[in-house]
Amino acid sequence: MSGQSQRLTVVPTVTMLGVMKARLVGATRGHALLKKKSDALTVQFRQILKKIVSTKESMGDVMKTSSFALTEAKYVAGENIKHIVRENVQTASLKVRSRQENIAGVKLPKFEYFMDGETKNALTGLARGGQQVQACRAAYVKAIELLVELATLQTSFLTLDEAIKTTNRRVNALESVVKPRLENTIMYIKGELDELEREDFFRLKKIQGYKRREVERQREASKAYAEEKLAEDMSLQRGVSINAAHNMLSQAMHKDEDIIF
């Protein structure tokens, strides 16, 4: 893109030059701040990505362990264990709540699990398999903990990805569009002001020359008038014509010049 197309349409004045310089300073500061924000978000983004990878790797082992524990509980307590568990559970003891965490101006959702009330070991009195059912429950609680953590990481990952893209677009716009346009406008205003200064200087020189010629013309007119007056006075005193008086004055002036030189 050429500088002409990137230049703002402004009136080249000193006031506008100050305004453009102030806008350039603001754009430079904004670019630096957005660049720092983008770097901070990128660092946090990479940390979350590492945590997601490690959590998913451990998630496979936990889900495998919990599924195996469920199979053991069904084998020991029988296939009807699902109905017995539903009859003994009235309200959920493991719950999830959400809050927001501020990272470089970006609000990331964060999920947390918590135990609501005391955990009752109502299934330990079963004729068989009560202990195995409790082990299965503990395995699935651990799986839920990892799922809640993974949900937090995945949501934060998507939110940070969108925030980084938006911030990078703003950084690129300031760096590639706004700042070059302001710089070209400042150069254009400076060039126009310099041209106006040169025009003013040339105008002043012309005015001075005109005044000097006018002064010389008035001086020559005054000199001619004085000579004419002197010639008239000489013609009256000596009784000669005006032309003869002029000739006598010219000869006298030539003699004075010869004496000087």
From TrEMBL:
Coiled coil: none annotated. InterPro entries: V_ATPase_D. Belongs to the V-ATPase D subunit family. GO terms for cellular component: proton-transporting V-type ATPase complex; vacuolar membrane. Keywords: Ion transport, Transport. The keyword Transport applies. It holds the Pfam family ATP-synt_D. It comes from Erythranthe guttata. It comes from the Eukaryota. GO terms for molecular function: proton-transporting ATPase activity, rotational mechanism. This is Uncharacterized protein. Gene3D superfamilies: 1.10.287.3240.
